[in-house]
Design goal:
The chain has 204 residues and is an all-alpha fold. It is 77% helix and 0% strand.
Length: 204
């Protein structure tokens, strides 16, 4: 099957394969420093494949039905895994993870309905911003854990004096990135709803 795929689709499949590997390393005891650093590297590698497959697709004008379905799915798998695991470690609040995952379920339903009605509700600017800041936020979150931090989202506001400079920077980066991601996530959902209402007849 891989021999028949173009390069962007191969990168998408690689990202999907990396997700369970990332989950395994993130699930090992965080007292073991090396698995967390390995998970950090795997997540960055997977995020890079997201950048590369989009760039190659646009440059070479390669668009396939497989890519349209699997590329956003791969992104959601990677982001969801990152947020769920960081929530399990007590780093990201559960309500943030819930907003991000529930938005994806809702938007996927809209896109599936649109596809059945011959309409392609492709990701807009809000969706791209959302994905970038979600990935960056998770990267900073994993980095903080790899540095030995148990600090939660936003903790730099009250506990900055107790953190070393690297943990402080990781916490600030995570908090700012995820805050922007939450705003972009809600913005993206509203954007999809508006486009859905204007382009698709739910009575058909």
């Amino acid at each position: 099957m891989l021999k028949k795929m173009n390069l962007p689709n191969k990168l998408t499949m690689l990202r999907i394969v990396l997700v369970p590997v990332f989950i395994v390393f993130m699930s090992l005891p965080k007292e073991w420093i090396w698995p967390m650093w390995t998970a950090f590297g795997i997540f960055i590698a997977a995020a890079i494949t997201d950048f590369l497959d989009g760039r190659i697709s646009r440059k070479k004008n390669i668009v396939t039905k497989f890519g349209k379905i699997m590329d956003p799915l791969a992104d959601k798998m990677l982001v969801s895994a990152g947020f769920i695991l960081l929530t399990g470690l007590g780093v990201v609040p559960a309500w943030i993870t819930a907003i991000i995952i529930l938005r994806d379920f809702f938007v996927n339903a809209l896109r599936m309905f649109g596809s059945d009605n011959g309409k392609d509700l492709a990701a807009g600017l809000s969706g791209k911003i959302k994905t970038i800041f979600q990935l960056v936020g998770v990267i900073f979150g994993i980095l903080g854990v790899a540095l030995g931090s148990t600090n939660m989202f936003g903790e730099f506001i009250s506990g900055a004096m107790a953190m070393n400079v690297w943990v402080l920077m990781a916490n600030i980066g995570m908090t700012v990135s995820i805050s922007v991601a939450v705003i972009a996530t809600i913005w993206s959902m509203v954007d999809y709803i508006v486009r859905f209402k204007s382009d698709i007849n739910v009575e058909e």
